[in-house]
Design goal:
By secondary structure, this protein is an alpha/beta fold. The strands form two sheets. It has a five-stranded mixed beta sheet. Strands 7-6-8-9 form a four-stranded parallel beta sheet, sandwiched between helices. Helix 1 packs antiparallel against helix 3 and helix 7 packs across helix 8 (about 120-135). Strand 8 (about 385-390), helix 22 (about 390-405) and strand 9 (about 410) form a beta-alpha-beta unit. It is built from 23 helices and nine strands. About 50% of the residues lie in helices and about 10% in strands. The protein folds into three domains: about 5-95, Alpha-helical ferredoxin (Fumarate Reductase Iron-sulfur Protein, Chain B, domain 2), CATH 1.10.1060; about 170-220 and about 230-300, Rossmann fold (3-Layer(aba) Sandwich); about 305-425, Rossmann fold (3-Layer(aba) Sandwich).
C-alpha cells in the first residue's frame, strides 16, 4: 500500500520560506488579492492543520479547492518548493477524511470515471447532443450545482473534433522512410474521444520523422485527473495498468511520447508516485526516464522542416503543466517557427492559466470564468487568426471562450499545425 506520510508533507511544506515570489505568479491571488488564495497562504494553512493549530474545515477546503494546480508558483519559487506535490497530498487527505457530502463525493468520482473511460465519455457526449435543445449545450443544472458545491456552472458539454466515438491508433505506425527511432505513444483517454485528430497527427508527424510508433492497445488512462483531484488510490491503479501495458516494450523504446500536457506532467512523476511500491518502483523509474512531450521529442531528434508555406498568424498559449510542470516552453514555439509562412505572435500572460485545469472549470466555475475572460482578451489583442496550445482541457475551454466572444479564431495543438504543413508539402503518409 502506498501511503503519503505526515513526515513527507511536513518536509515539503517546511521548504517554503514565505518570501512571496509566488504571489504575482498565482492566478487566483492575482484576481482576489487574498493571502489564503495564494500558494504561500495555502501552504501555511496545510502546515497549520497538519500541526493541529486549525481544523481542516470548510474554509481550508475552499482555499485548497480554489487552487488551479497550475504550478506557476513552482516556476517563480527560488526555494524549489514542490507545491504541486503538497497540493496533491493535501487533497488526498481531504478525500480520505470524507469532508464533502456523500452526494458531492459520488458526483466527483462519477465525473472522473466518465471523463477517463473513453466508451462512457463517447456515450455521454452522444446523449448530450440529444439533450442539447433542453440544456442549451451546458451541463444539466442539478449536475453542475452538485459538482460545483452550489454555484451555477456555465460549462458547455465538450464538442468532439468528429463524431463522438472512441478512435484508436493502430498498434504500430511504421516510420515513413528509414527508421531512426522506436517510440511508444500514450494515446490517453479523453484524447481518444475529443481530440483523436491530434493523436493521428502526432503519430503521422513522428512517422514522417523516422519513428516507428508503438501504441499498446491495453494502455488506458494515466491517472492524471485522479491524482490532481486527490483520488490517490485510483491514480495508483491507473498508473500500474499503464506501466503493465508498456512494460514488455520499454527496453526497446527510445522514448515514450505524450501530446497532453497534464498527462505528461503526471507520467514524468510516476517514479515519485510509485516510490513506495516494491513491485512497480523500478518499472516506474525506467518509464519516467523515457517520457517526452511531443514537441520536446521532435526538437530533440531534429525534424525535417515542411517544404510548403502555410500562411497563418498564430499565437501560442502555454498549457500550465507543460510550461510549469515540465518546464517546456520554447520547443512548441520552435516547431511553429519551423513552418514557412507562419507568423508567430506572442500574447500577454501566455503562461497564465486559462481556467480549465482538469475538472476545475466544472467544480470552480466562477473563478474559471474570470480567468477565461482574461485569456480571451489577451488572445483578441494579438490579432492572431489561430491559437495553438498543447493540452486537451485548454483546447476545449479556450474554444468555448472564443465561440462565446464571437471571435473567428481557430484553435488546435501545435502538432496538428505541423501535420497540416507536412500534408500540404506531401510529406505525410497518405
Amino acid at each position: 500500500m502506498d501511503n503519503i506520510t505526515a513526515e513527507e508533507l511536513d518536509q515539503k511544506t517546511r521548504q517554503c520560506i514565505r518570501c512571496g515570489f509566488c504571489l504575482d505568479a498565482c492566478p487566483t491571488f492575482r484576481i482576489t488579492g487574498q493571502e489564503t488564495l495564494s500558494p504561500r497562504g495555502r501552504i501555511y494553512l496545510v502546515r497549520s492543520w497538519q500541526q493541529d493549530k486549525i481544523e481542516l474545515d470548510k474554509h481550508v477546503l475552499h482555499a485548497l479547492d480554489s487552487c488551479l494546480g497550475c504550478r506557476a508558483c513552482e516556476t517563480a519559487c527560488p526555494s524549489g518548493v514542490e507545491y504541486g506535490s503538497i497540493l496533491e497530498m493535501a487533497r488526498t487527505e481531504i478525500e480520505s477524511r470524507s469532508l464533502r457530502t456523500p452526494a458531492q463525493s459520488f458526483a466527483r468520482r462519477q465525473l472522473l470515471r466518465v471523463l477517463t473511460t473513453p466508451g462512457q465519455l463517447a456515450a455521454s457526449l452522444q446523449a448530450g447532443r440529444l439533450l442539447r435543445p433542453l440544456t442549451g449545450g451546458k451541463l444539466p443544472g442539478f449536475a453542475a450545482r452538485l459538482l460545483s458545491g452550489g454555484a451555477q456552472s456555465s460549462v458547455q458539454l465538450p464538442v468532439p473534433q468528429e463524431e463522438a466515438a472512441v478512435h484508436t491508433l493502430p498498434p504500430l505506425t511504421p516510420a515513413l522512410h528509414e527508421t531512426r527511432f522506436k517510440v511508444g505513444m500514450v494515446a490517453g483517454c479523453v484524447m481518444k474521444v475529443l481530440f483523436s485528430r491530434t493523436n493521428h497527427a502526432t503519430a503521422s508527424v513522428l512517422a514522417a520523422n523516422g519513428c516507428d510508433v508503438l501504441c499498446p492497445p491495453a494502455a488506458e488512462c494515466c491517472g492524471a485527473l485522479h491524482i490532481h483531484a486527490g483520488q490517490h488510490e485510483d491514480a495508483l491503479q491507473k498508473a500500474r495498468r499503464l506501466l503493465d501495458a508498456f512494460e514488455p516494450h520499454l527496453p526497446e523504446l527510445d522514448a515514450v511520447v505524450i501530446n497532453s500536457a497534464g498527462c505528461g506532467s503526471t507520467l514524468r512523476e510516476y517514479d515519485k508516485l510509485l516510490q513506495h511500491d516494491d513491485a512497480y518502483r523500478e518499472k516506474a523509474k525506467l518509464f519516467t526516464s523515457k517520457v517526452r512531450d511531443i514537441s520536446e521529442w521532435l526538437v530533440e531528434i531534429g525534424i525535417a522542416p515542411p517544404s510548403a508555406p502555410l500562411s497563418r498568424v498564430v499565437s501560442y498559449h502555454d498549457a500550465c503543466h507543460l510550461a510549469h510542470g515540465q518546464r517546456i516552453k520554447e520547443q512548441p514555439r520552435q516547431l511553429l517557427r519551423s513552418i514557412p509562412g507562419l507568423q508567430l505572435v506572442e500574447m500577454e500572460e501566455a503562461d497564465t492559466c486559462c481556467g480549465s485545469a482538469g475538472i476545475y472549470n466544472i467544480v470552480q466555475p466562477e473563478m474559471a470564468r474570470k480567468l477565461l475572460i482574461r485569456k480571451i482578451e489577451h488572445i483578441r489583442a494579438t490579432g492572431a487568426t489561430h491559437i495553438a496550445t498543447a493540452n486537451p482541457g485548454c483546447l476545449a475551454w479556450i474554444e468555448q471562450g472564443l465561440m462565446e466572444a464571437g471571435l473567428d479564431i481557430s484553435i488546435s495543438h501545435p502538432v496538428e499545425i505541423l501535420a497540416e504543413a507536412y500534408s500540404k508539402s506531401g510529406q505525410l503518409q497518405q
